[in-house]
Amino acid sequence: MKRELLSSGAPWEPIVGYSRAVSVGDAIWIAGTTATGPDGHIVGETDAYAQTVQALKNISAALERLGSSTADVVRTRMFVTDISQWEAVARAHGEVFGTVRPAATLVQVVALVDPAMLVEIEVDAVRGSGGRG
Fold it and tell me: Is residue 33 part of a domain?
């Protein structure tokens, strides 16, 4: 099976040794994704909802580059630095995945790489499984 690596162009990818996404056959794994905007800065610095929206936009863009879509997502993992913000994170997640209904996990972590980051999301997808991929 063909293994395809997708880079976001972030300078730390080769240092850490990871890819934004990896696909093998119809399976796609998207690495932990934050609210980094096109300018390299965090979008919605103190707003968990805005950060979740941006992270999901970044994930959607990666899926599209691999010939997939959010409709193909079968699992999400959401890492938050403040569990009291779960409703804001869940609302943004529901706006994207309300009808897809992937298996989902939301947990609090002590910290993310940058203190401005409030949310990090991973997804797994199966290309074509949602009928739009």
Answer: yes
| Domain range enclosing 121 | 3-126
Average pLDDT of every residue of the chain: 94
pLDDT at 87 over 90: yes
Cβ atoms 83, 73 nearer than 8 A: no
Cα 65-49-109 angle, rounded to 5 deg: 90
Domains: count for the chain: 1
Percent of the chain beyond pLDDT 70?
A: 98
Q: How far apart are CA 77 and CA 123, in angstroms?
A: 6
Distances in Å between the Cα of 77 and the Cα atoms of 34, 61, 62, 122 are 12, 18, 16, 5
